[in-house]
Design goal:
2 copies of one chain form a homodimer. By secondary structure, the first copy, chain A, is α/β, with parallel strands linked by helices. Chain A contains 14 helices and 12 strands. Helix content of chain A is 40%, strand content 13%. A 7-stranded mixed sheet of chain A has the order 2-8-7-6-5-3-4, with helices on both faces. At the A-B interface, α3, α5, α6, α9 and α10 of A face α3, α5, α6, α9 and α10 of B.
Chain lengths: 399, 399
């Protein structure tokens, strides 16, 4: 550490994704109706009317402290415990739930809670780009374990190989961003058995931090399993940001498994950690409104139609793309190995995608299905032309 | 560090204030209309109608990304820079302002930005109870410098004596919680000169983190100076929570002084630090509504009448209490040395105050002026009876 370094910001640099976004022409064009924006899971359609209605309704104060200091309010905790119980079959308790500033807040809280400086946390890659900066900010070291290259399923042997004496947790994200995979109960059980055994050898727990923000965003009626169903040392992260497609009105939670051996100590530490982390608690209004917000979800049938349209058309054009089971992304193979260059080719056509190199998956690119129908239709000829531009369509024909 | 410690929560314990609140009978009685609640600066009257009106009005989306991902939005930054410029005369720039999850968020961001693990930050005591856990969470060590016992003014020589090679910042809070003092420009200039000189000796900056959440809550029309007026290495913390008496609808900011030598490096680190801290950004709705919220303030004339009623009546009863210049608290001397016991005596009468021992000011207790007129009137006979109970009134007469 250089004490004379005036900035001390080196470890606080923007992660590669943020830097890419800031430097891309997308930054200036964002919101322009002429572009085709597949970059992030940002709303490209007007908000759900129910969100506005709920915000207005619950803005009318019923008590003096309506907008007063809020912790994790009892009704919001009860709703969270009940819906999580219904979804997983695990009887989560309201007292073991912290309402947070969305999933970022829940993850920051989880890492603060279970982390010790120097401890390691295993991340299955490709992965959401912000696990790494959140872990680093908590003083933890991310250790990457690639998923199976063919199935995109968790590579249990690979995870186990990454476990060491310093391993404190494994992050599981199902439905997965960016792969769209939903892990089966059998896979989760194999993982749970493996890391449970490793934890016994280590003589200390290895937690699963289960990021379930896409739990309700699945295709073909799929119902994802939660690691909580097979592993007691699980902390569940949820956020309504994706379900409502309103990530700027942040509300989420961190839930501690009711059979977790260290439940009481972790529960007792929740609120202090939320305060010390910068009052990591959702707004009073979002907590009040939660009963009206929770039943709302973006139109899944529409999302599925967008998935199907893109998967079938990109496939017929010549792209190698699999159909995701959940979450809101496609992850086609780039027609040339250099996905940064290919993303640049598309950007020149006002078509914005995320190169896979930014999340440990080079040679691929990610499309967000939150793009509008109009953007999708306008994009198809450009995807075809860009493929021709690379010459990869000829190679495909020749092979 | 005991690697087998299952909780790792020792450094994340509730600060003494939170523990006191949780263990006090107040926890169960909070919100009960029969109690006299002087405990926290929590709303004891219905919210300002303008807050509700603004939330409703701005809940109507005008764009597709109305509730989409928000950083520090340009209009909110511009308003913050403009109002801070107007108040201090220092031309703060929108780009140098991060919109945060209230003052907790702004402080957490400031400490993350300027801190290096092991560095020290000087806190003038008595002080707000949460500087310490926020500093500890950021890996920083709080160093206490008591204010002048007679004037409650900053003890510049004491601050200077507390400065060492590891000193990274001094926290200034004016108007002060809990003392109610507003530091003069002359005092701030003396402090600035002293720590500026110390920083030159150290060969690295010492920042002032200026917590100005009470800047607009003053009595007799007082206009507090900001350290930013006399010291370039100042980071200003503001929150609308107190001004609007709506601390559950969190919005605030951290502003970097435009003449700060390391401005660019710190500015570039703001957003990454906000994300890595758990998406420490106010809700979309609060940022949209800010132009309508900023002109609102709780009724200062009413607050002043409450101050005057309590100061004069407590004084005539026999309490030693000075009249605060700003913020929303009284800080009388407890009639017996043991302020915890005295707070217990009052709590037995359903009259809840905060003992000074919780914020390094034993022998005193804090009253929040956010209590309602009705609570205040009902409390007066109890304050008198509790004083008689201690026998301190007889001692006062005898002396």
């Amino acid at each position: 550490m250089n004490d004379n370094d005036p900035t001390t910001t080196r470890s606080r640099e923007l992660p590669p994704l943020s830097r890419f976004l800031a430097e891309s022409t997308w930054a200036a064009r964002r919101g322009d109706r002429d572009i085709m924006d597949f970059m992030l899971a940002s709303p490209q359609e007007m908000p759900l009317p129910g969100v506005t209605a709920a915000l207005k309704y619950w803005s009318d104060p019923l008590t003096k402290d309506w907008f007063g200091y809020k912790g994790s309010e009892e009704p919001a905790r009860e709703l969270s415990a009940r819906t999580l119980h219904e979804r997983t079959g695990v009887p989560f308790k309201p007292d073991d739930i912290a309402m947070t500033n969305g999933a970022f807040g829940a993850l920051a809280l989880a890492f603060r809670l279970i982390g010790q400086p120097g401890a390691e946390v295993i991340v299955n890659t490709p992965a959401w780009s912000f696990y790494e900066p959140l872990l680093l900010a908590a003083g933890l070291t991310p250790v990457k374990a690639p998923v199976d290259a063919t199935t995109l399923d968790i590579d249990v042997a690979g995870v186990l190989a990454a476990v060491g004496a310093a391993t404190r947790a494994v992050i599981i994200n199902s439905p997965n961003n960016p792969t769209g995979r939903i892990y089966t109960t059998a896979t989760l059980r194999r993982l749970a058995n493996a890391i449970g055994e490793a934890a016994r050898c280590n003589g200390r727990p290895i937690y699963i931090v289960s990021d379930e923000v896409f739990a309700r965003l699945t295709f073909d009626g799929a119902r994802p399993s939660s690691p909580a169903e097979v592993y007691a040392n699980t902390l569940v992260v949820y956020s309504w940001g994706k379900q409502l497609m309103a990530p700027g009105q942040r509300i989420g939670y961190l839930a501690l498994h009711p059979e977790m051996p260290d439940l009481e100590a972790l529960r007792d530490a929740l609120f202090a950690a939320q305060l010390a982390g910068g009052f990591n608690v959702p707004s009073a209004l979002m907590q009040h409104a939660l009963p009206d917000l929770d039943p709302l979800t973006i139109d899944l049938e529409h999302l599925q139609r967008k998935r199907d349209r893109l998967v079938s058309t990109l496939g017929s054009i010549g792209y190698d793309v699999r159909s995701p089971e959940g979450a809101v992304y496609l992850l086609p193979r780039a027609p040339i190995a250099d996905d940064m260059t290919f993303a640049g080719l598309l950007a020149d056509r006002d078509l914005f995608v995320l190169p896979g190199s930014l999340f440990d998956y080079p040679g691929h690119f990610r499309l967000s299905l939150t793009a509008s129908d109009d953007m999708i239709e306008r994009s198809l000829p450009h995807f075809e032309a860009a493929l021709r531009e690379t010459g990869a369509d000829q190679a495909a024909i020749a092979s």
